[in-house]
């Protein structure tokens, strides 16, 4: 029998009981669609993780200021001096004594009402040092950044994030205009290029930047901050492999500078961004494996359905098989015929499953809260699964049919 003969015979056999064939392929349809949707969701989530890594920086440490507890387990200290435990001296010490550090900057932050004419916005402000922009990947869109005098003289100048700029000025840049942060007037000297949504879903452009000393004197002067206090120190290293070593050096240096005795808790906390990202990546990978396992089980169930129906078909068509063998068909011809029927069911189910899976993935991406990354590799993977399902689960029934004794088969009623 030629390939066209086998295909024509398989189509004729399936059309003879088309409803049963359609119900059999339903398991493959569901399995393939599940593979496409779930793998697409897993890849989309991984892409979001990669975006978060690039946004936060895999070579970065964040050092937070805050009081710890002594060895006696006393209560948390609440004075400003004990809460703002980091200062400019710590920043300079890290810069000068740890050569692996590439950029380092201290920062203060808070929230305020920003007003221009009849427009206003509630936003966050950050008081920063020069290297803060390099650490966080901020670039100037319009205007000029802060100059040295702005940092040293507490100049009343501000750089606007894109969201705040659009709220206050619409399509204009606002360069040279005077706005108020709280009750303090500031001159807009620059705007930042938009960065969009952050890895944790926040609007990164909803922010304004002022020099660090300006933040101390103009925005937080009433709090009675210790001299040179900062809330946070951010740093990056030149090589990601040095991050763990740099973290240990930073912790040891700060404990020494803050005179923390052995056994006492730190009055600061160090957050390793790469460790957070690695934990989240591992969680995502496990979720993807779980989704893939569920989809694979659906496909296996569909394959078992094909095997079951093909075994039933062999039993029902024993006399037909005997007749074919009696007129010259060999075992290989019978085996190829039944294998073709099984693979045809699987392929039809695979095509429909791919179509449903692609539509389903697009709908999840559009209306659902899960990120979806649909690409050709996912579809190719689904098509491969479809072919392998028909081949694997159709072989045993086909082999069983080919091993029938023609004489015994012809005796069947």
From TrEMBL:
The chain crosses the membrane at residues 21-42, 289-314, 342-364, 376-396. Residues 21-252 form the MacB-like periplasmic core domain. Residues 293-406 form the ABC3 transporter permease C-terminal domain. Belongs to the ABC-4 integral membrane protein family. It holds the Pfam family MacB_PCD. It is a multi-pass membrane protein. It is found in: Cell membrane. InterPro entries: ABC3_permease_C, MacB_PCD, Macrolide_Exporter_MacB. It comes from Lysobacter niastensis. Its main location: membrane. This is ABC transport system permease protein. The lineage of its organism: Bacteria, Pseudomonadati, Pseudomonadota, Gammaproteobacteria, Lysobacterales. Keywords: Cell membrane, Membrane, Transmembrane, Transmembrane helix.
């Amino acid at each position: 029998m030629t390939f066209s003969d086998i295909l024509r015979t398989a189509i004729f056999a399936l059309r003879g009981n088309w409803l049963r064939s359609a119900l059999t392929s339903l398991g493959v349809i569901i399995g393939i669609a599940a593979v496409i949707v779930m793998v697409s969701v897993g890849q989309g989530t991984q892409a979001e993780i990669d975006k978060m890594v690039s946004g936060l920086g895999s070579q970065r440490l964040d050092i937070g200021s805050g009081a710890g507890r002594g060895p006696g387990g006393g209560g948390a200290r609440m004075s400003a001096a004990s809460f703002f435990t980091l200062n400019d001296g710590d920043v300079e010490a890290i810069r000068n004594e740890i050569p692996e550090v590439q950029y380092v900057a201290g920062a203060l932050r808070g929230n305020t009402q920003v007003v221009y004419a009849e427009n206003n916005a509630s936003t966050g402000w950050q008081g920063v040092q020069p290297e803060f922009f390099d650490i966080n990947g901020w670039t100037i869109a319009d205007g000029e950044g802060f100059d040295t005098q702005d940092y040293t003289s507490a100049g009343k100048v501000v750089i606007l994030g894109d969201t705040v700029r659009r709220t206050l000025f619409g399509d204009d840049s606002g360069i040279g205009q005077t706005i108020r942060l709280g009750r303090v007037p500031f001159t807009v000297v620059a705007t930042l290029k938009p960065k969009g949504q952050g890895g944790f879903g926040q609007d990164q452009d909803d922010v304004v930047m002022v020099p660090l000393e300006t933040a101390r004197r103009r925005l937080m002067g009433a709090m009675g901050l210790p001299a040179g206090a900062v809330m946070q120190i951010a740093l990056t290293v030149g090589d990601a492999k040095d991050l763990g070593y740099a973290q240990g050096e930073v912790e040891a240096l700060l404990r020494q500078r803050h005179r923390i005795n052995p056994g006492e808790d730190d009055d600061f906390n160090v957050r390793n961004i790469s460790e957070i990202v690695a934990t989240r990546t591992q969680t995502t990978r496990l979720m993807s494996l779980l989704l893939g396992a569920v989809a694979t089980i659906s496909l296996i169930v569909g394959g078992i359905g094909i095997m079951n129906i093909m075994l039933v078909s062999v039993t029902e068509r024993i006399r037909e098989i005997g007749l074919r063998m009696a007129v010259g068909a060999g075992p290989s011809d019978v085996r190829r015929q039944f294998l073709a029927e099984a693979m045809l069911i699987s392929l039809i189910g695979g095509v429909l499953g791919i179509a449903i899976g692609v539509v389903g993935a697009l709908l999840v991406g559009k209306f659902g809260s899960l990120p979806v990354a649909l690409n050709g590799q996912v579809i190719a993977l689904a098509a491969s699964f479809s072919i392998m399902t028909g081949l694997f689960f159709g072989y045993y029934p086909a082999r069983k049919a080919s091993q029938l004794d023609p004489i015994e088969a012809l005796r069947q009623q």
